[in-house]
Design goal:
Elements: E1 14-19, E2 52-54, E3 74-77, E4 83-88, E5 100-106, E6 113-117, E7 120-121, E8 132-137, E9 140-144, E10 147-148, E11 151-154, E12 159-165, E13 176-181, E14 206-207, E15 216-221, E16 227-235, E17 238-241, H1 243-246, E18 254-258, E19 272-281, E20 295-299, E21 327-332, E22 347-354, H2 356-363, E23 371-374, E24 391-396, E25 399-410, E26 419-423, H3 428-432
Parallel strand pairs: 3-5
Antiparallel strand pairs: 1-4, 2-25, 4-13, 5-12, 6-11, 6-13, 7-10, 8-9, 8-12, 14-22, 15-16, 15-18, 16-17, 17-20, 18-19, 19-20, 21-22, 21-24, 22-23, 23-26, 24-25, 25-26
Length: 438
Amino acid sequence: MKLFSPLVAATVICFWSYADAGSHRKEGASMPPAYTSTPDVSDFEPRVKSGQTGRHGNGAHQPRKTSKTVGGCGYQFIAPGTSLVFTSQRYPGFYPNKVNCVWDFQTTQGSTLRLQCSPFKLQGSRRCRKDFLQVTTLGFRRRFCGKKRAFVVSRNTRRIVTRFRTNGRGSSRGFSCSISASGTPAPPIECDCGSVNRVTRIVGGVETEVNEYPWMVTLRYSGSMSHFCGASVLASGWVLTAAHCTEGMGASDLVVVVGDHDVTADDETNAQVFNVAQIVNHPMYDDNTLENDIALLRLASQIQFPEDNAVGRVCLPEAGRAYDSVTATVSGWGAVLEDGAASPVLLEVSVPTMSNAVCNGFMGGAVTANMLCAGVPEGGLDSCQGDSGGPLVTEEDGKAKQIGVVSWGYGCAQPNSPGVYARVTAYLTWISSYVTEC
């Protein structure tokens, strides 16, 4: 079994990316309401290969190698101690005509927002009636256009609304602005998590028991409801996936389904369907190298966790551990063969992890410290297309801990070609800056 690369969504009129702001550990701060005031891997034979692909979709869509364009208009939550960069579309190239994009930035009570824009150039007139960037906040409303020096808006407020509008004539290079939230994140939360629903353990690329892994998520297109990537439940309002699954998508382009087993069945008893309120791709995601291939999805409503644990949370791993040479399980609805058909039912396979030094012998040095490898020398056990974003977990002290997110590989289940995962321990601070409640 194998998990693969993500989908590219419809064209958007603007984009944003997150700018990491150091340590973000926190807990206890609530999201604001709508604003009102183990086999031995030493037997591998190193071999450099070509054809790197992300593990998502049906194999027809590969991680994009063009400039990033991430849909970010609308509501954006800024966690205390973090910042976000938003720009005009195609920046620093010329922006398109007929854009009307509104960002509504909010942070938690007790934190304040600060907006800072670099020097920019918009097509403009004296009264900014052509193209403009409008900033509205407590006691302040102003349009910016033409050539502008760098400026800062800081009004001791936890909400700033910006609007970028262009007409149908002319263009220019646009703008780049950052918005940051004050405050120091609290320590990460501790939730009830990692309980597996298992009667008999069978491994090696087989169907799981129904809801055996209660944190499993299938990401689907909102229009067709077809599966394209996996994910995992971290909390009642958040799921974890791969950035290459969500890059280029807006929140309205996808839905999250938990408690599912057969993605072709319409009568899954434990299935719950959720709209997505916010996509948070890692600020340093690189779609060429697949570095920092990790993303969070904030749900529009809360997951309900039943007493029978048909839906539950996965545990985060222990900070500082390498998780080399442990047996781990990857699960998903991806293809059972390279370039083959996706599985309608959830599959699982157990694979051993390895050190990055060993892995880079096979992957030509493409594996960074933020990645984790797992596989067997002879091949045959792996994730594949359609599994992207799904979890790689290992069990410790009776709890399942997610140590990886399905990211990329050279083909599926080939000999001397381990699967590569985003290393979750590298992102615990970033995750905890957003996931603040169970």
